[in-house]
Amino acid sequence: MKTSDFDYHLPESSIAQTPAEPRDSSRLLILHRQSGEVEHRFFRDVSLFLRPGDLLVLNRTRVIPARIFARKETGGKVEILLLRRRDALTWEALVGGKGLRVGKKVFVESEISRFRNGGEKPGGGEKSGDFSLRAEIVEILEGSERLIKFTEPIEPYLSNVGNVPLPPYIHERLNDPERYQTVFAKEPGSAAAPTAGLHFTPELLAKIQEMGVKIAYVTLHVGLDTFAPVNEDDPEEHKIHSEWCELPQETADLINQTKQSGGRVIAVGTTSVRTLESAAQSPTLRHRSGQITSHQLPITNDQSPITAFTAPTSIFILPGYQFKVVDAMITNFHLPKSTLIMLVSAFAGREKILETYELAIKEGYRFYSFGDAMFIE
User: How far lies 59's CA from each of 30, 80, 98, 214, 215, in Å?
Assistant: First the structure.
């Protein structure tokens, strides 16, 4: 297996720049794994492929306005993209700017001072008097990633100083930031949206529940590393970063009930897939540090009950993986050579996925975060 096995050519015109309006007017490609049959629908038709007794699992993470502008003591501009919180003051972040070595201090733009001080300019005789909240580079991580420590928690101010970080392939301005949030987003913490969930409206969710389909929630805070291309020739040599996730007891109970009654567990998005499949691993494997790749996981038909858990996950699902919880999934169309296209290839077969992607391009489907969706059953 090589990384190049998951490559495909996508015309730039196929990359969606704006979300569909309304949300459920996006297109939906149905891929039946057993027969290989493909159907073309609209997302509002997804209820036709759900059955009473099924369980739909949604990721309720909320994207935080994690893109922050700051300045160095010399006045030079700095851009900070918060990725993962280590503790109340410390974050892993991508930084843009020169000379950001250990010990360097940056000052968040003055809007935060006006927010905190009721419009008054802070005093104190600082050289950079227009700034009040400081951050210091405390460790150099990989590439342009840094560990930074703020002088006080940043979260209360993010709504005033932060911007929603859209993926780099989206060049159009997003007038309504809520369109990069799911309608069920609740738990702040993601640097990117769980985009398969963007297609749902409150009305569509209510209709699905009225059919006798249950809905459960997990939380996985999405990091940008999930969408990064795999640059190693052997995908198993790629380092996938851990992401914090939670599967509550209520969801564990619903999964077990659904399995026992013969219903399907349908994951909305690859983030839900990773959370559910992480829950199926043994507690020892689930809580260990380091990456968990497909070849390290035991092949078993064990249907042990799912239990609640809260922990980072670094599960890396590649072809050959035996899915233990997920019976069907709803997902968008993913970047070439990404860990996400590898995951869906593990579920439906690499050749079938690439064949289906080629068909979707010919049929004018829109790709990536604001693009159309697939239902793989």
Answer: 21, 25, 36, 14, 11
Residue 187: what are its φ and ψ, rounded to 5°? -100, 105
Checking if the pLDDT of 227 tops 80, the result is no
Single pTM value for the model: 0.87
**ω into 312 cis (within 30 of 0):** no
> Which residues are within 8 A (CB) of 82 and not within 5 positions of it... i.e. 6 or more apart?
64, 66, 68, 91, 92, 93, 154, 191
d(CA 316, CA 200): 27
Query: Which domains can be identified in the chain, with CATH numbers?
Result: 3-63+175-376 (3.40.1780.10), 67-163 (2.40.10.240)
CB 111 within 8 A of CB 129: no
Q: Given its phi and psi angles, is residue 155 left (phi above 0), alpha (psi -120 to 50 degrees) or beta?
A: alpha
CA dihedral of 96, 97, 103, 109, whole degrees rounded to 10: -80
**Phi/psi at 341 (5° precision):** -70, -25
- Measured distance CA(247)–CA(181) in Å, rounded: 20
Tens-digit pLDDT profile for residues 323-334: 999 999 999 999
Q: What is the mean pLDDT of the chain?
A: 88
